[in-house]
Amino acid sequence: MDHRLLLKEINAGKLEKVYFLHGEEPYFIDQLTDAIQKVALEEHERDFNQVILYGKDAEPLSLISELKGFPMMAARKLIILKEAQDFKGMDSLENYAEQPSETTIFVVNYKYKTYDSRKKLLKSVAKNGIVFKSDKVKEYQLADWIQTYAKSTGFGITSKASMLLVEFLGNDLARIVNELDKLAIILQPGTAINDVHVEENIGISKDYNVFELNNALAVRDALKAFRIAEYFAGNPNAGKLVVIIPTVFKFFTQLMRIHFLPNKSREAIASALKVHPFAAGELVNASRNYNPKQLAHIVNVLHEYDLKSKGVGNTGAFTEGELLKEMIFRILH
């Protein structure tokens, strides 16, 4: 089930007896758990009828006892097993899942990995409640996801601002949401969040970041590329080689792939490379500035400097900033 549909049902008060929330993306699991916790009980009912346990510390027999216990001065009780991936007695819940209590809502919060779907427990939960698998948002879908989230909170966001967040925060939805929520406090509702807002309030420079470095390399703008390298050299926390190189490597391997795609339309490239159409258009333009032979050379250069950034072949005589400048020089020449 789509998490938005499930969230809508929960917020409407349509609750099941058992929820097994599992998967690699913790943000959706926590969002659904928080929603259930908010609507399952009235504020005055929580002291006696809400129990939150953590997998590492939970005892199977105590948990089963809590699940089968009756609510006090309320129609139901809520039991949440957080960090359930650390719970050693998961198999002990199989019988309970077969016949869950009519007066208990049980939420299993199993994060960072997928539970084995072949297990009897998951099949029993699916029969008597809800099993939700929380998948990571694909990288090429992140910019769209950010725009959708911003819109849901009453804001717009520009493509460049979205891409900055993706480049800086990666596939970490909790961090992305946290930063956007901070902006929502500062900005007027209805504002279109742009790169200036991101720079001033989140600490990501709109001019000096890996995204802009790739843009400079894309058009072979040596002056801009070296300015960014100089900024990184003076602000080590803004960009470390071990973070910069994989991003630049990905950019140039994408250009290489474009050269060998039979259909070079923006839509076909977006589909083949799993990128946003906006990014596909930029990549098409960049591919015209590098032929396959140059790109093969650049990939080798990046591999060499990736090793140097990790101490292989670098005697320590060169700083990260110096290595970055040297790498950029060799890419552009």
Class based on secondary structure composition and strand pairing: alpha/beta
- Report the span from N to C terminus: 52 Å
**CATH top level assignment of the largest domain:** Alpha Beta
- Please tally the helical runs, counting DSSP H or I stretches of 4 or more residues: 17
Q: What is the topology, as strand order, of the major beta sheet? A: 2-3-4-1-5
Number of domains: 3
Report the radius of gyration as a whole number of Å.
25 Å
Mind telling me the CATH superfamily name of the largest domain? P-loop containing nucleotide triphosphate hydrolases
DSSP summary, beta strand count: 7
Can you tell me the residue ranges where pLDDT is under 50 for at least 5 consecutive residues? none
Q: What is the CATH topology assignment of the largest domain?
A: Rossmann fold
| Helicity level | 55-70%
Largest sheet: 5 strands, parallel
Structure description:
By secondary structure, this protein is α/β, with parallel strands linked by helices. It has 3 domains: 3-134, 3-Layer(aba) Sandwich (Rossmann fold), CATH 3.40.50; 139-202, Helicase, Ruva Protein, domain 3, CATH 1.10.8.60; 210-332, Zinc Finger, Delta Prime, domain 3 (Up-down Bundle). It has helices at residues 3-11, 26-40, 46-49, 60-68, 94-98, 120-128, 142-152, 159-169, 173-186, 195-202, 210-218, 222-234, 241-259, 266-273, 277-287, 292-309, 320-332, and strands spanning 18-23, 50-54, 77-82, 104-111, 130-134, 156-157, 192-193. It has a 5-stranded parallel beta sheet with strand order 2-3-4-1-5, sandwiched between helices. Helix 4 links the parallel strand 2 and strand 3 (77-82). Helix 7 (142-152) packs across helix 8 (159-169). It starts with a helix and ends with a helix.
